[in-house]
Design goal:
Length: about 260
């Protein structure tokens, strides 16, 4: 058992802020490649073809049968560090328009492949010189797997919905330059172009989802759930229903943007 601890794969030693900075930097490579066309939105397929494959050589194999995990859940994606290959299950075929497809691709290709690929290859190389190496091998204990998954999710979220594109989409589509405040259960409105649309929000999540629905076309099939999470995380919507003081604090903080788009 002591030998197992010595030989265990170690998680990538990066802080949350470092992972976010790396993700935003990768997204800016997309801007460099596409120029002003990038402001029309991010497409994973174009991102992969123009930036990820040329720079990182990650091979993408779709329509695979990845089976089920130990809990009986369908395995949607898998990264194999040794061959630098991502496998995507056939259940996420693009023709089926499964909302999980886009984030799964960012998670496996960008999160595991770009962020962690080189590190994982070095770690597996330190321990074993042969065999199929994946992020779910026995040499990865549960704690390490959880850390790697959280890192991949964080990186994927900020590549799929980077702050610069959120800012642009909010300004271009909704004319917003400050957060939308959720004051409690009630009626709210969004201005899209010259039309004002009213909706009823029971919860803060309802506000985030409505904003996400409006700007979703900029994010290439990213699910409403994933996009609404980024909207809240980036501070474009703030929950001030509990206290007026929180509203003032949120307005001063403005975490991921400043000024009007």
């Amino acid at each position: 058992m002591s030998q197992r601890r010595i030989d265990a794969i170690r998680p990538l030693p990066k802080l949350r802020s470092e992972i976010i900075t790396a993700a935003e930097s990768l997204s800016l490579r997309y801007v460099q490649e596409l120029g002003d066309w990038a402001l029309l939105g991010i497409s994973f397929d174009r991102f992969y073809e123009s930036v990820i494959y040329p720079d990182y050589g990650i091979v993408l194999e779709e329509d695979c049968d990845l089976g089920f995990d130990a809990d009986g859940s369908k395995i949607l994606g898998q990264f194999e560090p040794a061959s630098n290959t991502v496998y995507i299950d056939a259940s996420l075929n693009r023709s089926l328009q499964d909302p999980r497809r886009t984030f799964t691709l960012y998670h496996e290709v960008a999160g595991h492949g770009v962020l962690q690929g080189e590190w994982l290859r070095a770690e597996f190389g330190r321990i074993s010189k042969s065999g199929k190496l994946t992020t779910t091998e026995a040499m990865l204990d549960l704690k390490t797997v959880n850390v790697l998954e959280r890192q991949a999710n964080l990186f994927a979220a900020h590549v799929a919905a980077p702050r610069w594109l959120l800012k642009h989409a909010m300004g271009a589509k909704l004319k917003l330059c400050c957060p939308v405040a959720f004051l409690g259960r009630g009626q709210y409105c969004v201005d899209v172009g010259r039309r004002t649309s009213f909706y009823f929000a029971d919860t803060f999540d309802d506000v985030c989802r409505r904003l996400a629905l409006t700007i979703q076309p900029y994010f290439g099939g990213l699910s409403i759930e994933a996009l609404s999470y980024r909207i809240a995380e980036a501070g474009w919507a703030v929950d001030v229903s509990a206290s007026r003081f929180r509203l003032h604090r949120a307005e001063r903080r403005a975490p991921e943007f400043s000024g009007c788009p």
